[in-house]
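Q&A log
Question type: sequence-to-structure
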Amino acid sequence: MSGTPTVVEQPQPPSVARASGSMAIATIVSRASGLLSKLLLIMIIGSGMLNDSYQVATTLPTMINELLLGGVLTSVAIPLLVRAEKEDADGGESYAQWLITMAAVLLGLGTLIAIACAPLLTALFTGSADKANPALVTAFAYLVLPGIVFYGLSALLGAILNTRHVFGLPTWAPVLNNVVVIATLVVYWLLPGDISLDPVRMGEPKLLVLGLGTMLGVAVQAAVLIPAMRRTGFRFRWRWGWDHRLGEFGGLAFWVLLYVGLGFVSMMVLTRVALNDEGALVAYNYQWLVAQVPYGVLGVSLLTALMPRMSRSAAAGDIGALVGDLSFGNRMSAILLMPFSALMTVAGLPIGLAIFSHGESGLAGGERMGMALALSAFGLVPYAITLLQLRIFYALKDARTPTIIQGIIVVVRIALLYGFLEFAPREKLAVGVSIAMSLSFVVGCLVGQLWLRIRLGRLRTGYTAWTICLTVVASAIGFAVATGAAWLAVRLLGTEGPVATAWVELVVLTMVGLPLSFALLAVFRVPEVRPVMDKISRLVRRR
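Response status: OK
Response body:
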């Protein structure tokens, strides 16, 4: 590359606990505002064909961004940026500039091609499903596909900020996206009339507001990261020259792109299957949204904070530290997420009725989402562990193995999806596609652990398995008690109507089940819980 590098003093990395804590607060707000935007969406437009079409269209820019660059950036960019930070006199700034240049060009070209091929993309995702409206999907796609550029740049700028030990703002950025979407939905609701489904008219104000407002939210999410980059001392300039790591990046990128391509095929099949029942795709997406709330607040914060540390351990050849990070991450994933998995299993139906049965959705829509959530929540912990395992391979600069594991997951998932389509009643497809997704992550978790055992040697699997067993037992006891308390509360309060009853059950199950599950983990003397309990004890003694 051209230009004279300047020596940059790198800041000291924060601890995993501190970094995770700073992200957790931002993620809570982000997930809450995202849930509010989705709740408003289903209240305003319902869970029928209009929402199905919107869901398909808004999936396209995220999937194409992943296929073009997003998957490469989030999985490969951090290890290579960490390496450049260590090797380059300018702390990796020129290498980051080259990455941004490459991303802008590739994403820009990809966006133009995607917009030109919007009808083809619609055909790929909707197929011959009789509950789809291809014309409406295409109309929405034209409006939201420009968001590909902003999704990609948001991922890249966030990765660069993470390597510079800035974790908070990239986690806050989606909040602004959600605020824009909420404002868009309010404007949509205030506008008179409805979106025409037959024929679909591209110039309708409500169609334009919903599509362009969705795209604008992603643009704001990317734009807010630019001032943060400047505050770290980063100055952008276009970099068109050759870098000796380009070949290595390309080798890693090939396998990651294949990995993302498999995911693209998986989502295409899932969408086609779900569209055979009106509202099934919406129900699947909403139960996935709810399941992602605890993972987004706790799991993503942990993973994001661990990734740079794992990358440095791998770069230094410290396999012991790498195995320690993997074991710690697996155990913490189970400890943090298993009680929430139990909550969603027991309270899935109350969640659906209490939160998603209002407005145009109705009780049927809320019940469909609740059942899908309850019967698929078992996949939350395997999902978190699988993603952590794959990041270990990427930290070792091995993108080939995650792609093979992804291939196994996708084959299992597609077989299950078509199995449910063939044998399950159409009205149960929302549950079927949700279970297929969760079961595929169970398979991925087992395959990943076995592969890492062959690659790295002993992984302290017994210790991890024992911790998982303790979390299962603690959660089962905690929510058994909570279920009894919820039944008693409903009888004592004499609530009438399914929604009111659902709210009482949800509140009691949450307020009793979660604290009791975590308290039992402390009683079982799970080591990772001890620091939290010691801190609580110190606070009580001070009082």
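Response note: The chain has a mean pLDDT of 83.
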